[in-house]
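user: Please review this fold.
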Amino acid sequence: MRLLTTLLLLLPFSAFATVSLESQPYKVVMTAQEDGSMAEEWVEADKIAPGDKVGYRITYVNTGSEPVSGVTIKNPVPENTVYIMNSANGTGTAITLSVDGSQFAPVSELNVLENGSVRPAGAKDIESIRWIVDAPLAPSATGFVEFQVRVK
């Protein structure tokens, strides 16, 4: 596990609030269910090999004593992986993607320049994901966001 620090946001009355992030990788596997169907399951990522699907869950918590508005989480797509389109999720968040790590938009609005021509961005072009939490985050409140990649 890796503890990430993020966002020190200046609040009214010059009080600082802190939102802490913790990122955890999981291996995403298909598991047979009792009814014979198959379902995705996130399991501890002991060994990862090329072709494996990996899910990242980023848990956030307001460790301050004041509500925090505008909580923004940015996470790069790990090296040697490809983002799995439409895998980013987070209840109560607005999700945008980036092909350069700085400009974010819905994937339908992203383009890349390749061999002198502009084309719509694809999964291999996504470099970063951004979530903006819609509502203020109360003290001690927690939530999580997720995304998946495939290992090259």
User: Anything to note?
Assistant: The chain has a mean pLDDT of 89. The longest strand covers residues 16-32. DSSP finds no helices and eleven strands in the chain. The domain at 2-151 is CATH 2.60.40 (Immunoglobulin-like).
